C-alpha cells in the first residue's frame, strides 16, 4: 500500500526535479542521496562478482595471483601473506581430498581467532565442502547438538587446551566423528588424529575449479550458529551469495584494498567471520586478528598495525570507554568503526574521546534477508528506512505495529498490518524475495524456520522475514534499535523497554554497565523491573550512591519504568559475542537465598534503594505497595 510519503514523492516530480526543490519538500532526502552514492560502488562490485560466477574462494585465489606478497593476516606480530595462506589452504584441501567427502558434506571447525581458522576454511571451500563455524566456548549438550545438527563428517580443533577438553567431555557421544587436533604440543588421546603432522606432509598443490564444480550461489557456504542465549544454538544456512552480501557491508562502509581491519570479535560470529573476513577477501585488504578482545591493548594494537577500520559487537565499546584517559587517545589512523550493538549512551563519548571520524552501526541478523547501515554518523541510528530507499531495495524494509509483549502484529479487520508513522515504534520486517519463499533459514529445524516468516502483512499470501526486534523510526527516517521482543516487559499496565532503561541508568558516572530485565512478583500483574549493575573500578556501594540512582531514575524515567530491584555484580556476565545474558538472572529473580550479590529494593518513602533482606523478601508481593 503506498504511504503518504510516496504520494508526496509523485507530487514532487510535478513541482520540479531540481535538487533544491526536492530538498525544500523533503529535507531528509540528502541522506538518501548520500547512502545511494556510498552503496552504489559496493553494490556494483558484488553484482559484478555474482554475474561472473565468482564465489568468495575464487576472489581469494585472484587476490593471491594479484598481490601474492601482500600481508593478508597479521597475528601476534607475524605477517601472513596471501601466498602463504593459500599454500596452507592448499595443504588443507589436499588432506581433505583423502576423506572421500562429497560437495555439500559438512566439516566442523572449532578454532580460535588465529590464521588457522582462515586457511582451514578456505582450504575446505576449495573442494566445495560446507564449513560449520562452531563456537569454541560451548560445552556438553550445546556442543553435541551443534555438531549433530549439521551432520558433521569431520571435526577439526584448534590448539587451545580448553577446546580439546570440551570435546573430550563428549567424545563418547560423538564417537562416529573423526576428530583432528591442531598443535604439536597437545597431549592427544589415542582416538584423536594429529592435524599438524598430516598437514606438514600434504602437498600444497593448487586445486582446480573442477574440484568444486557444481556449486552455485544458492549452495551452502557455511553454517554460522545463533548465540543460543535462549535454547540451543541454531545453525543458520549461509549461502555463497549471502557470504558476498556480508562482504558488501564492509565495502559499503568504505573499506578498500589499502585498508586494514582490526577484528577482535570471534570469527565464528557473522560480524567477524562474515563481514570482516569476507569483506577483507573481497576488497583484497588486510585483517588483523587478536585471539581475545582486550580493552587495555585495543588502541595499542590499532596504532602498532596502522589499523584503518575497527570492528565491534555488543558491549566492547563500553569496556574501551571505561579505560582511564591516556595522552594518546585519538592518535591513530582509524577511518571508521563498523559493527552492531553500540548503545546510544556511550556513542558520543567514544567518538569524541577517541576521535573516530565515522561510526557505521549496522542492523541485521545472520539469517536475515537483508541488512542496513548508518552511513550518516547519526548518533544511535542503525540505518534508514525511507520511501526512496525502499523503492530501490530488492528486499524492502517496513516497521509495523505490534504488541510488544505478545510479539504479535496488530491487524485490522481485513487481517492485514499497518506501518508505523514517523516517530513511532514497531516490529521490523523485511521482504523475502520470490526465489527465497521456500528457503530454509536454519538447517533441520522446520518449526524455527516458519517462526521467522510472517505472512499476510499487506496482502493475502505475502511473506516477510521477522527479526523479532522493536525499532523506532524518527522524523528523518533514521532507525534506532529499541528492544528485543521478549525483553520488553509490562508493569503497571505499561510496556517497558529494557534497552531504554539500561541507557538511562548507564548515564551515571559510577556505573559501567546495566542489564535490565523483568521479574515476577507474586500477586502482581506483569513483571517488575530489575537492574543488574556493574560499577566502575574504584567505586563501592554507598548510601549516597543508592540515593543518586533513585533520583536519577526518578528524574529520567516514568514511575512504571523505574527499576524496583537492584543487583550489584562483581563482573558483568556476557556471551562470547559480548551480549548480555539475561536468562539466568530472570530465573533467579530477586530471591536473596539464590543470589549472593548485594540486593536492594526501591523505597519511595526513604527516596532511595534499601537492602533487600530475607525478611523483607517474604513481605514483597500482593500486600506491598509495589
From TrEMBL:
Gene3D superfamilies: 3.30.300.30, N-terminal domain of ligase-like
Cellular component terms per the entry's GO annotation: endoplasmic reticulum membrane; plasma membrane
UniProt xrefs under InterPro entries: AMP-bd_C, AMP-bd_C_sf, AMP-binding_CS, AMP-dep_synth/lig_dom, ANL_N_sf
Domain AMP-binding enzyme C-terminal residues, every copy: 500-579
Pfam families: AMP-binding (PF00501), AMP-binding_C (PF13193)
Domain AMP-dependent synthetase/ligase: from-to ranges: 60-387
Record keywords: Fatty acid metabolism, Ligase, Lipid metabolism
Gene Ontology molecular function: long-chain fatty acid transmembrane transporter activity; long-chain fatty acid-CoA ligase activity
Superkingdom to which the source organism belongs: Eukaryota
Reaction catalysed by this enzyme: a very long-chain fatty acid + ATP + CoA = a very long-chain fatty acyl-CoA + AMP + diphosphate; tetracosanoate + ATP + CoA = tetracosanoyl-CoA + AMP + diphosphate
GO biological process, one term: long-chain fatty acid import into cell
Top-rank EC class of the record's enzyme: ligase
Family classification: Belongs to the ATP-dependent AMP-binding enzyme family.
Protein's recorded name: long-chain-fatty-acid--CoA ligase
Amino acid at each position: 500500500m503506498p504511504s503518504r510519503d510516496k504520494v508526496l514523492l509523485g507530487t514532487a516530480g510535478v513541482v520540479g526535479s531540481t535538487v533544491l526543490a526536492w530538498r525544500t519538500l523533503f529535507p531528509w532526502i540528502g541522506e538518501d542521496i548520500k547512502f545511494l552514492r556510498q552503496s552504489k560502488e559496493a553494490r556494483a562490485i558484488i553484482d559484478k562478482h555474482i554475474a561472473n560466477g565468482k564465489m568468495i574462494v575464487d576472489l581469494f585465489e585472484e587476490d593471491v595471483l594479484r598481490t601474492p606478497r601482500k600481508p593478508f593476516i597479521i597475528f601476534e606480530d607475524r605477517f601472513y601473506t596471501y601466498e602463504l595462506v593459500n599454500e596452507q589452504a592448499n595443504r588443507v584441501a589436499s588432506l581433505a581430498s583423502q576423506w572421500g567427502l562429497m560437495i555439500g558434506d559438512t566439516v566442523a571447525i572449532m578454532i580460535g581467532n588465529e590464521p588457522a581458522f582462515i586457511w582451514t576454511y578456505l582450504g575446505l571451500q576449495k573442494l566445495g565442502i560446507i564449513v560449520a563455524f562452531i563456537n569454541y566456548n560451548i560445552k556438553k549438550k550445546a556442543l553435541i547438538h551443534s555438531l549433530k545438527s549439521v551432520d558433521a563428517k569431520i571435526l577439526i580443533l584448534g590448539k587451545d587446551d580448553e577446546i580439546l577438553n570440551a570435546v573430550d567431555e563428549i567424545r563418547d557421544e560423538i564417537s562416529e566423528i573423526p576428530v583432528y587436533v591442531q598443535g604439536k604440543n597437545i597431549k592427544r588421546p589415542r582416538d584423536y588424529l594429529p592435524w599438524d603432522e598430516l598437514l606438514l606432509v600434504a602437498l600444497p598443490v593448487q586445486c582446480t575449479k573442477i574440484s568444486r564444480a557444481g556449486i552455485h550461489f544458492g549452495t551452502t557456504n557455511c553454517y554460522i550458529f545463533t548465540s543460543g542465549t535462549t535454547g540451543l544454538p541454531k545453525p543458520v544456512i549461509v549461502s555463497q551469495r549471502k557470504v558476498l552480501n556480508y562482504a558488501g557491508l564492509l565495502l559499503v562502509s568504505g573499506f578498500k584494498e589499502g585498508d586494514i581491519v582490526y577484528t577482535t570479535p570471534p570469527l565464528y560470529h557473522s560480524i567477524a567471520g562474515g563481514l570482516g573476513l569476507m569483506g577483507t577477501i573481497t576488497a583484497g585488504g588486510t585483517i588483523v586478528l587478536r585471539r581475545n578482545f582486550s580493552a587495555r591493548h585495543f588502541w595499542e594494537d590499532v596504532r602498532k598495525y596502522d589499523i584503518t577500520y575497527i570492528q565491534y559487537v555488543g558491549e566492547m565499546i563500553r569496556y574501551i570507554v571505561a579505560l582511564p584517559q591516556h595522552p594518546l587517545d585519538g592518535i591513530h589512523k582509524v577511518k571508521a568503526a563498523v559493527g552492531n550493538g553500540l548503545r546510544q549512551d556511550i556513542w558520543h563519548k567514544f567518538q569524541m574521546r577517541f576521535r573516530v571520524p565515522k561510526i557505521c552501526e549496522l542492523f541485521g541478523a545472520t539469517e536475515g534477508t537483508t541488512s542496513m547501515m548508518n552511513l550518516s554518523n547519526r548518533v544511535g541510528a542503525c540505518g534508514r528506512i525511507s520511501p526512496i530507499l525502499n523503492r530501490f531495495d530488492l528486499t524492502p524494509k517496513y516497521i509495523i505495529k505490534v504488541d510488544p509483549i505478545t510479539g504479535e502484529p496488530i491487524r485490522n479487520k481485513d487481517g492485514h498490518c499497518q506501518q508505523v508513522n514517523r516517530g513511532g515504534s514497531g516490529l521490523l520486517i523485511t521482504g523475502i524475495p520470490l526465489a527465497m519463499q521456500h528457503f530454509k533459514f536454519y538447517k533441520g529445524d522446520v518449526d524455527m524456520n516458519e517462526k521467522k516468516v510472517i505472512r499476510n502483512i499487506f496482502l493475502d499470501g505475502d511473506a516477510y522475514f521477522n527479526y523479532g526486534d522493536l525499532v523506532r523510526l524518527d522524523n528523518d527516517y533514521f532507525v534506532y534499535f529499541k528492544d528485543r521482543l521478549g525483553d520488553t516487559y509490562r508493569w503497571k499496565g505499561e510496556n517497558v523497554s529494557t534497552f531504554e532503561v539500561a541507557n538511562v541508568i548507564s548515564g551515571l558516572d559510577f556505573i559501567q554497565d546495566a542489564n535490565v530485565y523483568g521479574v515476577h512478583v507474586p500477586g502482581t500483574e506483569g513483571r517488575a523491573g530489575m537492574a543488574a549493575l556493574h560499577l566502575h573500578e574504584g567505586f563501592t556501594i554507598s548510601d549516597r550512591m543508592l540515593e543518586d540512582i533513585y533520583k536519577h531514575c526518578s528524574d529520567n524515567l516514568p514511575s512504571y519504568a523505574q527499576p524496583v530491584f537492584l543487583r550489584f555484580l562483581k563482573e558483568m556476565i556476557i556471551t562470547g559475542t559480548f551480549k548480555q545474558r539475561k536468562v539466568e538472572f530472570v530465573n533467579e529473580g530477586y530471591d536473596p537465598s539464590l543470589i549472593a550479590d548485594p540486593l536492594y529494593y526501591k523505597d519511595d518513602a526513604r527516596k532511595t534503594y534499601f537492602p533487600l533482606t530475607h525478611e523483607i523478601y517474604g513481605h514483597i508481593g500482593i500486600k506491598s505497595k509495589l
